[in-house]
Amino acid sequence: MKLFINEELQETPAYDNKSLREIILLIEKDRIPKSEVITTIKLNGVILSMEDEKNIAANYPVEKIESLELLSANPNDLMLEGLGDARDVLTNLVEHIAAVIDLLRQGDINKGSEKFQSCLGIMQWFNELLGYTTKFAKIDYSHITWQEDRSVAELNLKLLNIYGDITEAQRNNDWISLSDILEYEFIPVMQAWIKLLPVLLDYIKSKTGKAN
After folding, report:
1. In the chain, where are the structural domains located?
2. pLDDT reported for residue 114
3. Residues 87 and 169: beta-carbon distance below 8 Å
């Protein structure tokens, strides 16, 4: 097994009879600076999503690992950078989703679904970014309101439910339902997040001691 940490080849000790998760925990303990966390795991050349990490890492045997690449960073810096970029990223995402809706309603399913696939990575990125804010900055969204007495936790839950509806519509090849979900549910939630992000960013900066 070849081991890379922040793009540098490392000497690899024996990890006999250990799972991928156990190996990563050992590396994080012994080789990653205390102020940093592992942000990216690439297994045999493939980047693992957060869901992949949960499903694969627990039981993946060491003998199947040809290469393991890890990137680490200070979590607060990484999170604040992502939140700083998120407003422009989500604005661009909404524009792309609007184009997807037009294509699907025009009956151009191939182009519409292909364009939508390119949006999924951004949607996953934002979902993981929100996960970082709760994990590293310990943000409790139930205590932050975004509309009258509605908490940001409700907004986040609504987004997760929409992701489920989107997946179901795709599974059923129900492009009419997908276009309706995107227009009447997904885009309004994204627009709410776009408005909320500057406030959230200032709040997290003050909480993490990074305020200007």
Report:
1. 2-73, 76-208
2. 93
3. no
pLDDT tens-digit series, residues 20-37: 888 888 999 999 998 888
Q: For the chain, what percent of residues have pLDDT higher than 70?
A: 97
Helix (H, G, I), strand (E, B) or coil at 93: helix
How far, CA to CA in Å, does 174 sit from each of 58, 116, 155, 168, 181? 35, 14, 25, 8, 11
- Written out in words, the top-level CATH class of the domain with range 2-73 is alpha beta
pTM: 0.71
Whole-Å CA distances, 29 to 36, 48, 55, 164, 194: 11, 20, 22, 35, 37
Q: Where do we find the tokens 């309603």?
A: 105
Q: Side chain identity at 93, as an amino acid letter?
A: L
Encoding tokens for residue 57? 């890492």
